[in-house]
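Support request, please re-run this one:
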Amino acid sequence: MTTDLLFQHWAEARTRFSNQLKNISETDLPKKLGNSPNSVGFLIRHIADVELLFSKNVFGQSDLKVSAKTVIAQKDTGEWIQLAALLTYQEEAFESLKKAILSQTDSDWQTTVTTKEFGTKTKAEALGRIVSHTAYHAGQLALALKYGT
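Re-run finished. Output below.
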């Protein structure tokens, strides 16, 4: 029951990101807000990159191959301008994290994981981390879409 509830929590929170994708056009992808270093395209890619990293490193999908280019580059390189590819990639990230979350047993949520990014957390705490990460960048995405140039 815990796993189902936590999955529902994550899936609903992620709609703050995914609902914005319905109306994005390719011309939106290079938009940035003021002096912000991150474009719309970068933010979409980054959210998906981090979801894939969580699937693998936090929730144990060890067979998953991840090339988290936005995390590696640590900046917007301007290459995230192909909408179809970004939408496909973020959907793959969603499905991967969904699978990873749903594969947890109720007792797994109290086991700990350690990463260099956020130290040692229970898997339940780590889920809170990915929820807040996505929501944080979804807010940036919304502002860049609305006011960016």
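The beta strands are 112-115, 119-122. Residues 2-147 form a domain with the Four Helix Bundle (Hemerythrin (Met), subunit A) fold (CATH 1.20.120.450).
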